[in-house]
Design brief:
alpha/beta, single chain, Rossmann fold, 241 residues, six-stranded mixed beta sheet, four-stranded antiparallel beta sheet
């Protein structure tokens, strides 16, 4: 794991609603994500996991605090800057796969590269490489509906890596999979993290997923749960000391 900090959040607060109905999704949450590190984010439903992922991915804005991805502070970024960030620096893996059903497996992977303007020869070569990486080389022309759940999630992982992101965000990526496919999925994500040096944060309810983590962050009621002795720290010291 590198010491390079890819993303960091400082004292994030996010609430929804007003008055008696107000819900505090996050309360003073600070985290850091490093290159080549797989962080597992745990907590019960309503703990704030998805809110934190949405803030880290620039899909939502905090009421207070800061989110940095590289040199860009997302709260102060323009919509154009956020679009560029999502195209070039971030990858997403969704629980519901979020594949386009009318496109083949290879076309689903190529789409982010087309939006980025990658030359056709380069994107086709990269698509072949990614299909092979996730074990779908023989399924390039099949549409998502012709693939199993595990195969669709592997395709989602391949698509998330299409533009070589620095930060990969996965929200309950094994939630639609059986135990065997879920284990295979987390093993694949862990191997890709360490091989490619990507910073990855994965939210999960599944306690078995933590076995693959370099570090564990526990959230409850919108707050970080202090790690117990011997556990991974939820927020390592800043690189600048």
């Amino acid at each position: 794991m590198s010491e390079q900090i890819v993303a960091r959040a400082e004292r994030l607060r996010r609430s929804y609603g007003h008055g008696p109905a107000e819900v505090h999704a996050l309360l003073d949450v600070s985290v850091q994500l490093r290159a080549g590190e797989l962080v597992v984010l745990r907590g019960p439903s309503g703990a704030g996991k998805t809110t934190l992922l949405n803030l880290l991915g620039g899909l939502d804005k905090a009421d207070a605090g800061e989110v940095w991805v590289g040199e860009l502070e997302l709260g102060a970024a323009s919509e154009d800057e956020l679009v560029e960030l999502r195209r070039h620096e971030l990858g997403y893996i969704f629980q519901t796969f979020a594949l386009l059903p009318v496109l083949s497996a290879s076309e689903n992977i190529e789409l982010p590269m087309r939006l980025r303007g990658v030359p056709i020869a380069e994107r086709r070569e990269r698509t072949r490489e990614l299909l092979a990486t996730v074990g779908l080389a023989d399924h390039a022309e099949q549409r998502p509906g012709e693939l199993s759940g595990g195969q669709q999630q592997r395709l989602g992982i391949a698509r998330s890596l299409a533009n070589e992101p620095r930060l990969l965000i996965a929200d309950e990526p094994t939630g639609q999979l059986d135990s065997a496919n879920a284990e295979a999925m987390m093993s694949l994500i862990a191997s890709l993290v360490h091989e490619r040096g990507v910073a990855v944060i994965v939210s999960t309810h599944d306690p078995r997923m933590a076995e693959h983590a370099d570090r564990i962050i526990d959230l409850r009621d919108g707050q970080l749960v202090p790690p117990k002795p011997g556990r991974h720290l939820s927020a390592p010291p800043r690189a600048d000391g």
